[in-house]
Amino acid sequence: MTVRILALVGSLRAGSHNRQLAEAAVKLAPEGAEVDLFEGLADIPFYNEDIDVEGDVPAAAARLREAAAGADAILLFSPEYNGTIPAVLKNAIDWLSRPFGASGLKDKPLAVVGTAYGQYGGVWAQDEARKAAGIAGAKVLEDIKLSIAGSVVRFAETHPSDDAEVAAQLTEVIGRIHGEATAPVAA
Questions:
Q1: Contacts of 107 (CB under 8 A, 6+ apart)
Q2: Is the peptide bond before 30 cis (omega within 30 degrees of 0)?
Q3: Cα-flanking dihedrals φ and ψ of residue 143, to 5°?
């Protein structure tokens, strides 16, 4: 069984190190796991219940919901903006939190990783993303963490997939998500 892991990147910048980290996850996914990098978070309007109308949901938001519905697990890549989660990632979580009680995140294993320029690698933002996703209904995998500090220097000339330490850590993260997604549900 192939486990489909939906990857959402909280940075829209073309040269984003978090996007590169997500690209590395796609490339490094072990056998039995497939990481699908979602494109289009920039096109999703800010969540507004007035436009979240059954049968008339904005197309970009509907695509996100469909992608999440088809995934077995979710992997968020979060930089840190002013000490917290980027708005584009929070907006994606907000859209996926609805409809209430039947969201695209409901009971799905979800992990948060990322890289940031600072010395802590974006841990505050990643903690905020875990909190929001958990409230939205995801089964947050609290013990799966990867916060890579000093992204501007570390990845100045090296893609994350070519950094042996990062590649090994990311492969382990994906393997653990795969294990959670295939684990039998406790009765």
A1: 137, 138, 139
A2: no
A3: -90, -5
